[in-house]
Amino acid sequence: MSQEPEPEDVKPKLNLTLNYEGNQITVKVKANTKFAKIFQAAEVCFARTFKFVHEGKRVSKDDTPAELDIEDGDQIDCFLEQVGGGPPLAS
C-alpha cells in the first residue's frame, strides 16, 4: 500500500516550544505562520512582553518558521523586553 503524497500547498504543522525561565508552552503552527501570531500567544499565556530568540538570533514578528529553517520540536526562548536603557538624563 503506498501513501499518496501531500499536495504542495498543504504545509505540515510544527510543534514549537516557547520557553520563559523554565516555564514552557507548546504551540502548533504552520511553517508559514507569521511569528506575530505566535508571540501574541506567549505574551497572553505568560502575561509579559518579550523578545524572542532562536539559536542565538532575534526573531522578528514578520519572520516565519519556514524562513528561519525552524523545525518541528525546536525551542524559542523568551526574554523580558526591556524598555528604555538610554543614557542618563543630564541634571
TrEMBL record:
Pfam families recorded: Rad60-SLD
Could you tell me which PROSITE patterns the record lists for this protein? UBIQUITIN_2
Q: Which residues form a coiled coil?
A: none
Query: What SUPFAM superfamilies has UniProt attached to this entry?
Result: Ubiquitin-like
Record-linked Gene3D superfamilies: Phosphatidylinositol 3-kinase Catalytic Subunit, Chain A, domain 1 (3.10.20.90)
Source organism superkingdom: Eukaryota
Cross-referenced InterPro entries, in alphabetical order? Answer: Rad60/SUMO-like_dom, Ubiquitin-like_dom, Ubiquitin-like_domsf
Question: Where does the record place the Ubiquitin-like domain?
Answer: 51-85
- The name under which this protein is listed is Ubiquitin-like domain-containing protein
Q: Name its species.
A: Mycena pura
Taxonomic lineage from the root: Eukaryota, Fungi, Dikarya, Basidiomycota, Agaricomycotina
